[in-house]
UniProtKB/TrEMBL annotation:
Predominant subcellular localization, coarse grouping: membrane
GO cellular component: membrane
PROSITE patterns: ABC_TM1F
Pfam (any one): ABC_tran
Native species: Meloidogyne javanica
Name of the protein described by the UniProt record: ABC transmembrane type-1 domain-containing protein
Gene3D superfamilies on file: ABC transporter type 1, transmembrane domain (1.20.1560.10), P-loop containing nucleotide triphosphate hydrolases (3.40.50.300)
Membrane disposition: Multi-pass membrane protein
Compartments (UniProt record): Membrane
A single MF term (Gene Ontology): ATP binding
Amino acid sequence: MGLYIVKSLSRYSNLDSTSPYHPLLNNSDNLNINNVGTSSNFSSLNGHQQTSNLLPLRVSTWEHIRYLLGYCLYVWNWLLVGFLFLVIYASARVFVPLYTAQTMSATISTNVNILLRNGLMVIGSVVFMMGMSWRLTLLTVIVIPPITFFTKLYSSYYDSLSEKTQKTKSDANRVAEEVIGCMRNIRAFASEQKEKDRFGWHLFRTLEINKKKSMALAGFQWVNEFANNCILVAILSYGGHLVLSGRMTADQMLAFMLYQLQLGENFYMLNSVGTSLMECVGASRKVFEYIKREPKIKLDKGELMPEKVLGKIEFCQVGFSYPTRPNTHVLKDLSFSILPGEVVALVGPSGAGKSSIIALLEHFYEPLFGQILLDDYPIEQYEHRYFHKIVRLIFNLKSSCFRFR
């Protein structure tokens, strides 16, 4: 901006006296020329005696602004091109799909850019401030350690709130999916109001957590603003003392204040980057937990691949309970054998363990105790792909698109 003003002011010296943007044209309020000599440099100002040099003319701030705006007419074509690029960019973003992880990638790229830029500006500002006055610089940076500690506490708290927000949202979505998938059963048992209240309770929990996040953000910003104002008052007080005592000039004091204001703005941007990153971390923590989660059943453990399989199946004193209900034993000391070529039907009431037997045979779960044998070998010793080629599960549902062979 300073370079732009210098260029604009230097342009005035090249303007012709007849230009409508010349600062000395039609300035009849400040200048009344009665007579200008043609053979000499003498002038008469308001009836006063002639002098050899013109007095310096003082132009008001508003007239400077008017002259600068007039200068913009010389570069109107570049301003128009920039405006058109802005309109095209804003219009193009409307048609960019949001399902391509653009939000997360934009957040990371923008925050990294802001972090690097403001970090370098903080270092540069501190270096220049130390060159002007190391006393005022120490007074400025003395508040950084407590602010950093407070920022760390706030980031941890905000991170936990973001994780809770994601959990409550997922619970609300899960309830909605269950209700939509079982709409006939809900209507049959007249449970519409109950499911509505259950979904509303999850939404209310999400709202309460978002309120806590808003209050935490407001408190964090209030503490930052209060600390910046305290630093400003301290610098003005001590800096004024240094100026009055002659250890610092007024120009240096003004420049130091400008650097201090820039430093405070940079720290504010760094804190906002920390907040955004903590929100992203809290939102994505559960996803990364599932990605890094290792199954208890090692698929690459088995290596047995016999050329011929007869098909003899044995359950030897098998006991099983689901991980979500470890205290409820679905199968207790179950033992039976199926010879090759036999067709066996599992019959029993709901919850008796029919589906659990099939799940264990497919090696979806590990039994708590006992063994499941195929041709006298434990099924976990078979190679994963080979085992599921010889042991297949077929679902005979209404829609053929759900049939697996």
